[in-house]
Each structure stands twice: as C-alpha cells, then as structure tokens.
# Entry
Amino acid sequence: MRLPPWLKSMLKSFSFLNVFSGFLQMQHVELTLDRLRSAIKQQGLDVGVADVEHLSILCPQVVRLSGQDIGAMRASDAIVITDPLTESRDQYEAASNHTIGRKRASMSAIINIIKKREHAFELSLLDAFRSLVGKRSGERLKIPSKEYLLQFMKEKATETLSGDAKHARTTRSTATKSQSARKHCQGTSLLRPIEMLEHLREGFGAHGQIMHVEEIKARMANYVEIPSELSDLTKSILKKIGISRLYSHQAESIHASLSGKNVIVATMISSGKSLCYNIPVVEVLSQNLLSCSLYLFPTKALAQDQLRTLSLMTEGLKLSLNAGVYDGDTSQEERQWLRDNARLLITNPDMLHLSILPFHSQFQRILAHLRFIIIDEAHAYKGAFGCHTALVLRRLRRLCSYVYGCDPLFIFCTGTSGNPRDHAMELASLSTLELIQNDGSPCGPKFFVLWNPPFLNTGSKILGKMDTCEFARKEVTSRCSSPIMEVSSLLAEMVQHGLHCIAFCKTRKLSELVLCYTREILQEVAPHLVDSVFAYRAGYIAQDRRKIENEFFGGKLRGIAATNALELGIDVGDVDATLHLGFPGSFASLWQQAGRSGRRERPSLAVYVAFEGPLDQYYMKYPEKLFKSPVECCHIDAQNKQVLEQHLVCAALEYPLNLLYDEKYFGPGLNGVILTLMDKGYLFSDLSDSSSGMWSYIGHEKNPSHAVSLRAIESEKYKVIDHKKNEVLEEIEESRAFFQIYEGAVYMHQGKTYIIKNLDLAAKIALCQEADLKYYTKTRDYTDVHVVNGNLAYPTKVSGMQLSRTNAQANNCQVTTTWFGFYRIWRGSREIFDAVELSLPKYTYESHAVWIRVPQPMKTAVENQKLSFRAGLHAASHAVLQVVPLFIQCNSSDLASECANPHDKRYFPERILLYDRHPGGSGISAQAQPIFGDLLNTALELLEACCCNKETGCPNCIQILSCGEYNEVLEKRTAIMILKGVIEAESHV
Ligand SMILES: Nc1ncnc2c1ncn2[C@@H]1O[C@H](COP(=O)(O)OP(=O)(O)OP(=O)(O)O)[C@@H](O)[C@H]1O
# Structure
C-alpha cells in the first residue's frame, strides 16, 4: 500500500511540525500495547479498530500516552486510532471515520501511525491531529489548540512519572526511556573542561553515573636550549613554528640520531615526538641535497597529517624536500612526479610491500640515498600486521644494502608500548637501538571520569551507585540507560558548552548512531550547532575524511563521533575532551584515544562510559585496575614460517636470495623455507655453480606480493551511491557489505538515514536515497564455520603467562554467511515491527578458529535433564568470548563465536568455537589456543558469579551485543554444566 497522495500533500503543508518534533520527542512517555488496550478498556471505550496489536505507537515523533495521560486530557480531545493495515484510501477513511465516530465520547489525544508493509510513515501528534481530525473530521470533534498541546507537553516533561507511566517505563527497552525522564541541559555558556566536570556533577551526571574521577596531574616541562650544532636553517624552522626551546628528550634523541644511532623515542602521547625525527631529517637533507628519507605511517590519515606539518615547517624556505604522500589515494601523475623528485617520501607498509619494493628500480634515486627510515606509532605494528611489516622492513633493508649500497638509520616513535625497545629491534631486525624515554614535555591536568549509565528501578527513579549484582537480583530487565544515549548526551553537552570533543566508538554503526542521537539533542537545545558535529570512520571516501580532519582542526567542527580510525596520533588541534563508548580493547588504545585531548598543556577531560558487559563493569568497580596497569607489550614473530614463506617469495623476485647474506635478515629458518619454496616451484638455484648459492624467483605470478595481504585488507568493495546526487558515500568491504546494504536496508551516513533502493551485485553498487525514517534494519543471517586442518600463520606468544596444556585446537577454517532476511526495528524502543525475506549470495572467507570438543557424555547428561544442548553450547561460547579481552589485547569484535540459529534444525557440532572475524584471520584465535583452559575457567567463574537469575542470562554473562542470533537460544544453567564438563575433561590432559 502507498500513502494516499492526498495525505502526502497534506503532510507537506505541515512542515512547521518539524520545529516541534524535537520538543515532542523529548517529552514522550511510553506505552505498551497492553497498557493501551487496558487503558481504553478501563474507560469503557470501544476502540472500533479491528486489531489493536497492529498499532505502531512507538515511533519517537508520536506522543506516547499512558492510561493516566489519557485520563488527564479527558476533557479536551479525542483519540484517533487508525488501522495500520488498511489498504486503500477508502478503507482508510472508513476506518478513521468509523473509529472517530464510535469514540467521540471523551478520548484524550491522537495517536496515528499509518503503516504499510514496505515502509512505515509516522505522523507527529499535530500532523495526525490536523490531517485527520482538523481537516477530515474536525467538525465532529474538539480540536486542542497548539498552545494547549505544548503546555501539556511542558507539564509532562517536568512531572514525575508515576502509575501507568512507571509501568510502561519498566517494560520497555532501555535506549530512550532514561532520556525522556532526564532533561537535557539547555545552556550554551562557554565552559572549560574542569568547569564541565562540575557542571556534569550537578546536572546530567547527578544520578550516580560518576563512579570515579582520576586526576592525572599536570607535569612541568624540562626545557633545554636549542643545540648550537644545528644549522641556521634548522634553527630558523624551529623559530618559524614557534619553538624557542626543546624538551629534554627531543634534544637527546636529535643528538643520538645525528650521531648515527638508531633511536626509539618512547615518551608520552603528544610529547612532541615528531620533532625528534623531523629535525634530524631536515638537518641532514638540507646539508646533502641528494639525501632522502622514508616515512612510514600505519594509516593514510597520519600520512596526510605529517605532510601538513612538514609543509608548515618548510614553506617559504630554501629547502626543497619535495615531500609527498605515496599511497593508494595518490594519482598516477603524482606518483610519477614523486618517484622522480621526492626526497621525503611518506607512505605505509602496504604500499612499500605492493608498489615500491617489487619495482625498486623505479625508486633507485631514493633508495640509493636513503639516510633515514622513520616509523611513527611503532606500537601499531603488532600481531599479524606487525609480523608482516617486520618482513617487509627486512626486504627493504637487504635491497638498500645489496643493491643500492646504503644503510639507513631508523627513528621509531611510540607513546603506548610496554616493551618499546625490544619490539622495535625485532620489527626492523636491528642489533642496536638507543631508547629515549625521559620525557621532558609538559602536560596539563587530565580528569578521567568513569561513567556508568544510571540504573532505573521499578519505580523508575534513577538509582545511584548500586552494585551490579545487588541490582540484578532485584530487576534485570530494567537495568540501565543506554550507554549510546549517555555518550550522545555527553557529546551534545560538550559541544553546547564550547568544548571540542571526540567521542570514540567501537564500531562504524555505533559512531553513526551517536552522531544521529547527538544531532537530535542539539536540534532541540542548540539547533545552530547541529552541523558542527560529524562522524569519522573507515569507509568514508578519502576526500570526505580530509575535509572532516581539516574542519575539526580549523575549529569549524566541534564534535566528532569517531571509530579508532582517528585514534592514532593525528594532530586534530585543540581537543578539550574525549568520550569513550566502552573499553576499546587495550590500555594502549584507551590512552591513545584519551591522548587526543589536552595537547599543549591545556587541562582536559576524558569520560569512559561503560557498557553492561563484564569487562566494562569490572573497570567501573575497580578503577585502579584501569589506571595502574601498564600498557600492553607488543609482540611480533618474524620467524613465523608461513609468513616467512610468503615474503621470501617476494624478496626473491626483488633480488635473488642468498643463504650466506640473507640469514642475518631472515633468521636461521631461512634454509628450510628456501627448500620448501624450491619444492613448491617458486625458487630455483643453479646448483652446478655452488659458489653462487643464489636462489631466484621462478613462480608464475608476475607480482607475488599481490597474493600477500599485510592486514587482511579486502580489495573487493561495494560502493554506496546517493542516487539523487550521484555521489559515492562509502565503500564497504565485501565481507561486511550485506550486513549493511540490501534492497530495503536503512543505511546511515553522517547522521542521515537513507534507504537502499537497488543493489547491483555484478557492478557491486548500491543505490540509495535519503529518507527520514524512524526505524533501522538488521539482517537475519546465519554463519557456518567449517574447520579445516592446517598450520596457522601467526604467533602464539602470550607474554609472561604460564601456559596450561589443553585439548583446544587452532585450525584454519572456512566461514560462510547466509543472509535470508531482515528486520525493521523502531529506533528508540528497538521493537521489531516487520520481517522481510532476502535473497543474497552467500559469502565465504578463510579464517582461523580455536575450538574444543565437548565430551559426548556431557551432551547425554544435558539431554537427560531435558535441557537444550544447543542453547547451552551457544551460551558457553558467548561466555568464553566475553572473557578473551581479559587475556589478550583485542577488541571483542575481532572474534566471533559459533552461534545457534533458532530456526536451524541441522546438526550442531559438539564444540565451543571462536573464530577470527576478519577474512584471512587476525591471529587472535591462535593466541587463544594455549590459554584456552584459562578462558574456560574464567568463563565459568563469570557465569557462577553473575547474580542474574534468568535462564537466558544478562549482558553481564551470556548476552552479547554482537551475537548474530540476537541472543536467542541461550541457557545459562546448561552453559555452566557444559563448561564444568569440558574443564573436567581438560584436567585429564
Ligand atoms: N619544544 C617544544 N616546545 C613547545 N611546543 C612543542 C615543542 N615540541 C613540540 N611541541 C608541540 O607539541 C604538540 C604535540 O607535538 P607532536 O604532535 O609532535 O606530539 P607527538 O608526541 O608526536 O604526538 P602523538 O603521541 O599523538 O604522536 C605540537 O603542537 C607541537 O608543536
């Protein structure tokens, strides 16, 4: 059914309603269908519409009324309820007239939603009133004035909720309900970060959310004079950028680099590390006009940031560095120009591996005169990515040495690593490295707030600091307000009061949701600031990202809802506050994110808002564990046989391998790997000439590096195009695409909602159209994991841990996702109101899994007790997944568990299995294998310690946000039985 054209045109004429929609949104109270039905019944009214069940009364722009509210307005008006399934204008009119006619007595307000199966149209209170009552049937009813309605709403906003409204609150989902009770700050006075903390304490945060405030004290600078040995040009550059003295560590590291030492600078975030490499580079490159430098950054954004810094330093001076960024976004002409002219080439390890080393002769000028290799954000090179980068650097060093006769120095920088020196030495295979860590930079005080969304009890009073379990015993379903809403409200508050703020979110979707809610709040309290908040995440096209970075740096934007794409050292200017939606997966990440604020000695604020999961709640309860723990060590294993094989093939193409000379780069495993590669047909040596000992590449691929992905980056992507503007909004990796784009999907981008109109699978293009929708969509899918045997490519080192023996196995696996439909879900209430079928191709990728078999007698024992083995396994896998970040530095979204689909009746393997979510694997499940026994024990402890008494568990134990099956088919008691059984079997290993 389509919305009748007459109604559409009528609605257009009520655009003034948009002005009030934010206001109305804030004021609503919620009503369940049951409550509506009984309220209507209590008043002896005949609803007259066939089936109240079909009423959709949950959209945010419709005022939701409790029975009590209906009573309150009894004298005034009428309620019009139309059947949402009405199919035509005639039926529609008949239904509404019929309805109105039969209840003209004394109903109190209007709730009207017209819904069809494909799209849902929602009318605001006034819309509905005007269109239905005012224009169509108004003569027969009293119409409340606009003033009356607004007054009513104002009163509602201040009144304490009680009676029916209370009940409605506690039975609804949590996202918007606490918001509706808590007024948003309307102020826009300028506040400094410390004043903001007080402001929060007295206002928005006065409901016990603030669990702890850690004051990280200010630190005085230790300055030294600018060394006299520096050239006049370098001194003039320092003067130009306003540096009159150096921090002591800067002088120390510059001296070490200029004395020919490899250096790692491991000082605080924002401690002026970039000068530690820029000054020696400028000094050397200005003295010898042939000398060159190579800068490596892990992200494109950092590369751009550094180019900006270098331009500011050198513009207008007689120094032609011809600096430029050589990455995937660089045009062919620019690449050619940089190859011919650049003396300072900024790139990333992926580009080095794919486009520089295999074509090294084109970079002959640069490689032959390479004096420095700069590796900033060294801590980013860990795990699988670190392992690959280590081998790329070995390939670079041997080419420089054998082919171009040079031995460049390294300067590493890191702000967050537990083992900076060892890690960097392993990364670049260096035998000596000077560690600079006596930090001479100043820093302003930082107030780090731990913030737990408030609890709501059955009386819907917001409770203060209540022990999670104490509360869980009382009422689990109405635990607390949504952390997403809390972060959105905080972001709005910061922006309103003139603070520059970044809200870090774990996923792309969360960053879009936070942006969307923040804008809604700002629309209500400070509409002129709505466009000063943006989202920043992977997927956006490069041009858009640059624009956001520049506008935030320039102060035009005040707030950003970002993923960790903005986490690493980009200098985004004066940030006053950071928000952190959930623990980001490692201390290093958290400190990196928080380090974005408070640069240049300014006081700053950081607020970590907890999710309900065990890890976040653990830190809320034990803040010292957060603030006193050292940052994690970075591990790489450059001897990993499988990775070594891959890179030796590439290295042999670049320059023949030699056992005698290459062992110092590739380690003692070189001989064995060369023989394996010979057997596989990649390498050949003329054994008749035993003196040469050279192994040449004879494989079929023209450029074997194309087959090796350093960080499992997918090349196949889907483009999302705004149909009307013909503009590319985003490119989504193939593995993620069908979770977001399919015909009918609601797609979010920069706080706007779009509907996907067409998906062209062959061209990999999704056309979308902007649409103001109050619902979102979520796919219905299932994922099969097929375990296959094979060696794993990534390290299994877990530092300082006693490894227990275990039955758990780590294997390669094949992950296949099948999409069979999607749900339409109201925002705010998160209620599913429609299910639609889908037909999309399956997506399969290779990954790695860690798993343990559940003993057969355990299955029999569970079934004998008439419990569901599937539900127990599913819940046990969730519990194990929840505890992984306690042992391994990772995000819980890096891994997934095998989840039982409620409709799937096929055989379900008797195993607890976790797998790497990224195609190609990320190495985390391999790291989990040796500690699987600990994971099982901790998961059992978690379940036994959680006081929720629900069989389906709670977010503290077995319910997880990322469950592909929406936490259906879960049994906590059975999970405990199964875990005990598996742990018992482990004790016999
Ligand atoms: N000696 C100095 N005196 C005054 N300001 C300085 C000095 N050195 C650096 N700064 C300023 O400190 C700020 C931070 O510098 P920079 O971005 O180099 O820090 P960083 O340690 O590289 O940061 P990150 O940890 O994010 O990578 C810059 O604005 C820079 O201009």
Notes: The pocket of adenosine-5'-triphosphate is lined by residues 243, 245-247, 250, 269-275, 415, 569, 571, 595, 599-600 (CB under 6 Å). The two ends are 64 Å apart (CA to CA).
